[in-house]
Task: inverse folding
């Protein structure tokens, strides 16, 4: 079963930086992400979802390939590619994989203007090692929501507090 973890940050740039670092950490197999979305509540009060994967573009690419292949069979590859790309883009933009967009938009409305949250759907993780790697962001991170058990959530909060204190001590040293 996947776990949902939502962490807020005072600035969008920091949430984006943490997401990039998590992708690097994933390469080391310390975490396995299903989805990672930055939810921004901008200064004008608008909520923006910064998806890790652009589903419409991915659909258009896949649709273009299959359309070209079908077009070759019927001796009109350009028409096949155009139709395939259009159908792929439409189906990609309608599919909602990972974290529910409606949930993230509602969450974004609760954030202070100018701040952001990082919504993570985790398959598996080694929390202590991941938080150790993201220690510099711990003083600004605040755990907002999770579907972890109470015991696991308390453990995660303790790890965040410990990392925050360590980061503060390093900053003062």
Result:
């Amino acid at each position: 079963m996947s776990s949902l973890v939502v962490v807020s940050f005072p600035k969008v740039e920091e949430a984006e930086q943490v997401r990039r670092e998590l992708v690097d950490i994933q390469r080391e197999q310390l975490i396995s992400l299903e989805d990672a979305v930055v939810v921004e509540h901008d200064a004008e009060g608008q909520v923006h979802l910064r998806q890790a994967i652009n589903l419409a573009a991915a659909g258009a690419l896949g649709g273009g390939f299959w359309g070209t292949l079908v077009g070759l069979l019927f001796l009109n590859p350009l028409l096949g590619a155009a139709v395939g790309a259009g159908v792929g883009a439409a189906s990609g933009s309608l599919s909602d994989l990972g974290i529910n967009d409606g949930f993230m938009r509602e969450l974004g409305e609760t954030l202070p203007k100018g701040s952001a949250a990082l919504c993570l759907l985790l398959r598996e993780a080694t929390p202590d090692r991941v938080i150790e790697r993201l220690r510099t962001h711990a003083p600004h991170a605040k755990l907002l929501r999770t579907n972890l058990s109470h015991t696991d959530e308390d453990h995660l909060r303790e790890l965040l507090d410990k990392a925050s204190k360590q980061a503060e001590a390093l900053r003062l040293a």
